[in-house]
Amino acid sequence: MACLQFIKMASADSTNNESTSLETQLTTRCCMYRLFDENISEAIQKLDEIKERDRDALAKKSPVFSLVSNADEELQVEAYNLYNQGLKYVFSVEEEPRFSWEGLLVFCLGLLQIVGGALLTVFTCGTLAQVGNGLIIEGISDCISAVEAMVTGEFSWKSWAIQKAISVGLSIITFGVGKLIAKGFKPCKVLIKSLGKKFKSLPKFFSRQTADGLSVVAKANMKNAVKHVAKKVVEEIITYGLGKAEEEILKQILNKIKSEVQKGITDDVKSNIEKKPLATLVDSIILSHLQDEDQLNDLLSDKNRRSDLLAIFRQLSLTAIQPFHADLNWQNKLNSSLITVIDAAKAGAKAGAKGKVRAILLSIQAIHYMTLAGDAIAAVLTLSSKFFSNLQEELNDFKEEKVNPEKVMVNDLSPSDTEMLKAFKQDLAKVISDLLADALVEVFHQKFSGHIVSNVQNKVNGFLRKHVRSGLKSDRTDEKLRAGQNNRYITNMPVNLNSKVEGDAGKQSRSHAERIKNRETVGTILDVRVLSEATGTKVVILTEDKRGRFNKMQEVNPSTKPASQTVTLIYRPKSSQYPSGHYDVRINNETMIIEGKGKSCLFHALARGMKPKAREEKIALEADHLRSLEADTLLRHPGHWEPFIKRKVWTETLRGGDWYMAEGAAPKLTKKQKETCMKEVGGVGKYKLMQKHQQKRKMGQFINADHQPPVSCIRGAITLNQNSKLATAMLEVATNSSPLNHRLIPAVKKSHGRELPAVFVPADCHHEFPSTKSPAFRKLLTETISKDNVVDSFKLTILGSMPRFQLNSTKGFPDFQKDNRSKFQRDVFENSFQKQSEKMVDNWFKEFRGKDVMTQQDCDTIKTWINNEGYNNQNDPLRNKVADLL
User: Fold this and answer.
1) Is 647 in the same domain as 685?
2) pLDDT tens digits along 757-787
3) What percent of the chain has a predicted confidence (pLDDT) above 70?
4) Over the stretch 71-87, which tens digit does the pLDDT of each residue have?
5) Residue 795 and residue 186: Cα distance in Å, rounded?
6) 168 and 108 belong to one structural domain
7) From CA 325, how far away is CA 693, in angstroms rounded?
8) Final residue belonging to a domain, choices 623, 652, 681
9) Are residues 90 and 106 in the same domain?
10) How far apart are CA 736 and CA 729, in angstroms?
11) Residue 564 belongs to what domain range?
12) What pTM did the predictor assign?
C-alpha cells in the first residue's frame, strides 16, 4: 500500500492520466490482498457468531482462484502467482451440521400428547374429549416443529415455551373457563362445580370400564380414535404445507410489488438527496471522514469502509421510517378484530336466515373496507414527503452529535472525486429507495391489502380443509367417535343420586318415559342401563362376529346397588333383516331365539333371561312390566337420568342410530362364507335337519331356512276349513301322523314346523319376502290352501318367496344394491331361484304321495309355470294380485 501511494504521488504531476504498468500491478496486488482480508474477516465474524450460539464450526477449503472472478484476467494472473508461491487455498467457516436432540425430545413429548389426547377422547366418555382433541392438535404441532428442528438443527426452548404457554392459555379459554370468567364470577363458579362433579365421577367410571374389559365397543372406540389421530395428522401436515406455500407466494408477490414501487420512487429519492438541505447534510457527513481530499478515493473504494458509511445512512433512514411502523401493529389487530366480529355476525345472521341483519352487516363491512383502503392510500401518499422531512431531522441530529467539522469541502474536490462522490450517492439513493419501498408496501399491506389477503386465505384454506376432510371422511370418523363416547357414557357413568330437578331439567327424561310405554318404541342401550339399575341386574351383551363366534360387546352393571342376577343378551346389528336391530338371549350357553317380537325384542329377551323357565304368556306380561318399570324409574328420578337421555338424543343426531357398532349395519362375508352361500342356497329338506346343518356350518348369520309355505298359513288354513284336504295333508307332514292327529297341531307352532320342508335362502332376501313382510299376502295364501287349490297355492308360495322389489318396483322396497354383501346375496338367490322352486315342488309332491291332493298333472303344470318364469310375467294374474297387496 505504501509503494502504491509513493507511485501515485510521483505521477501526480504527470499530464498522462493513464496508470503505469507498475501502478496497475501494485493496485491489482492490493486488491488481491483486500480479498484475502475480507475472506479472513468473514471467517472470524462467522466464528464469533457460532461461538455465541455455543455451536461447533466447520472449515471448508477452496482454491485461491475462488476469491476472484473468472472475467477479471489481472486478478486471475495475480491469484496464479500466489498459487505458485504456495498460497493455494483459502478457507470459509460454516456451522457444523448437528442433530437437534432437543427436537427429538419435543417430538417424543408430542407423541405423548397425541397418545394422551387419544386416551382422553376414548375413555372419558366425552367429558374431557375437547381437552383430548386439543392435546392431539398440540402434539401434532410439536411433532411438526420437532421434525423441522431436527432437519435444520435449530431449536429454541424459549420460543417453544412461549408458544406452548399461548397454546395452553387458548386451550383453557376454548374449554369454556375463560369465557365464563369474562362473564362473571357466578357462572364461573357453576362451571367449576360442574367440572368438579364430572372429575369426581371419573374414577368410578374408569373402574367400571376396566371391569367391562376391552369390549367390542371399546375396541371400536380405540380404532376410531386411531383413525381420528391419523386424519388429524394428515390435515395438520397439509395445513402446515399450505401455510408455508402461501407464505412463500405472498412473499414473492410482495417482493414483486416492492420492485415495481422501487422503480417508481428511485428517481424521487435521487432528486431529493441532490437538493438542499439533504444534499448538504449528506455531503457533510461523508466528507467529515476525510483529513484531506486525497483520502476520498480510499474511503469510497475500500469495500469495508464504503459499507460502513452506507450502514450509517441506512440506520438513519430506518430511524426516519420507524414512526410509520409504530402504529401499524395495534391498527392491524384492531381492524382484524373488527373484521372477525363482522364475519362471525354475518355467519350467525345467515344461519338464522336474518336477511335484513345480514344486509346491514354487509354494508358495514363494505364501508369498513373502503375506509381501510382510503386510509392506506392516504398513508402511502404522505409517507414519502414525511420520510424526507424525518430523514433531514435525523441527519441534522447525527451531524451535531457525532460528526466532527469537515476539513474538506465539496468545492475542494477534483472533478474525478466529485464524480466518485456522485456515484456513491447513487448507491445511497438505491439503499434509501429500497428501504422506502419496503415501508410503502408494508404500510399499504398492513393497513388494507393484508386484511383482504387474510380473508381470501381463510376462505381458500377453509375450502381446501373442507375437501381434505371430505376426502379423508374425517366427519364420519368424528361422528363414530362421538357416538362411541356417548355409548360408553350411558353404559358406564355412575348415576348421580344427589342430582336435583330444577326448571326444565328432567324434561327429556319424562318425555322418554312416555315414549317407552309404547310397544313400537325400540329398546336401546339406554333402556338396558335404566332397567339394570331398576332391577339390580348385570346385563352382558354379546355380538356375533363374521366367524360365528360371540364377543362381548359391552357389559352394563348397576351402580347404585349390587347385581343380584346376570342376563346375557345377543345383539344382531341393524340390517335389512333387522331394521331396528334384534336381541336374542343366551341361557346356559344355549341361544334362545326371540321371534316375532319386532321392536319389543329387547324387553322380551330381558324378561326371558330373568325368568328362563316361565311360560310364553308370562314372558309377554313381564316384557310389558319392564317397559312400565323403566317409565316409573325415569319419572321418579328424572334428574338422575337426564344426562343419559341427553347422550342418547345426541347420538340419534349422528349417523349410526341409537346403537354404536364397529362395523356398521351388516358384517361383510368372508371368502369362505361366500363359497358356503353359493353351495347351500337353494337346498331343500326338513326344517329340523336344515337347522342342525345351519348350526354345524355356522351360517345362521347369512343363510336362513324358509318354510314354503309358511307354518302360519298351513295352520290358518285348517282353522278356516277343517275339511281342507290340502291343509290336512300338509299338517300330516308337519305332525308326522297319518291320519292327522289333531292333538299334535298346537305343537307345530311350538316346534316351528320341524317336520315341514324348508328352503335355504340368503338372510337379507328372506327378510324382504312377502311371506315375511305382508299379512295380506299370508291371508291370501291361507285362503287358497283352505280351498284345496293346490296349483295356485304353490304358485303363491313361490311368489311369496321373492323379494318385494321384484314384484312391485314402485314402492321403493330394498333392492340389495347398497353394499357388496347384499348384492352378492341377491345374485346367488336369483341364480338358484328357479331350480330351488322346482326342488321345493318335487319335495312336496313326494310328501303328498297317497294323500290324493296333488296329481302328476298338477305338479307338471306348476313346474311348467316355473320353467317359463311365470313369476316374472307381469301379465300373470296371481303375480299382479300379490303385487297389489304389497
Assistant:
1) no
2) 999 988 878 878 898 888 899 999 999 999 9
3) 71
4) 667 777 777 777 777 77
5) 76
6) yes
7) 86
8) 652
9) no
10) 10
11) 503-652
12) 0.51
